[in-house]
Amino acid sequence: MIKTGIIGAMEEEVNQLKAVMEAVNSKVKAGMEFLEGTLEGRPCVVVRSGIGKVNAAVCTQILIDDYQVDLVINTGVAGSLEAEINIGDMVISKDALQHDVDATGFGYEHGVIPRMETSVFKTEERLTALAVRVCEEVNPDIRVFSGRIVSGDQFISGREKKEWLTEKFHGLCTEMEGGAIAQAAHLNNTPFLIIRAISDKADDSAHMDYGAFEAKAIEHTVKLVRALIQVL
Length: 232
Hints:
Blueprint: E1 4-8, H1 11-18, E2 22-29, E3 32-39, E4 42-48, H2 53-67, E5 71-80, E6 90-98, E7 121-122, H3 125-138, E8 144-151, H4 159-169, E9 173-175, H5 178-187, E10 192-200, H6 206-231
Parallel strand pairs: 1-4, 1-5, 5-10, 6-8, 8-9
Antiparallel strand pairs: 2-3, 3-4, 5-9, 6-7, 6-10
Helix pairs in contact: 1-6, 2-5, 3-6
């Protein structure tokens, strides 16, 4: 039976999972509370990483080093980069990259991490397919997509930047943690899966959409995680 590390960026996500966990032990490290126990009868560790790539990467390394997790799942919300992906829909990672890596002054393309063999970190195909299937079963009221997730330490809320991200990286959505978690997992040869519920359109409507749709987005994500844990 595999042990899963579940990273949520927001307190609301973690609280909903914590409420249904059993045999919970709590430990604080690097300012993060790691909750170890069982979820749907499966061993897991649930933690809120906080916002941004550094928090997310540190959190991932602790899960791997201290808890020896076999899989890292990252949940959260994101801004859509594709017109067909609407608020409330779900995106499952096929791969992830960091759009704010910029070593173009040394001749590299945007998003390329110098001296690494890859800057695009892939989710195992079986995990992507499984998550899509489970999401369709437990969240029949929304649509689910699979593809690239692009990350950076920026909240994208302008049309110009959104268009640049879409043209340059062909991502389905943008957020602030997944790419860093993917890189940390890759460096440790640990499988990962990023789950993103769409809370805004990553343009100048973001400030209007976010608060209204966040709660529903988290609800769908938590429902997916609970069902997914049972079939891993």
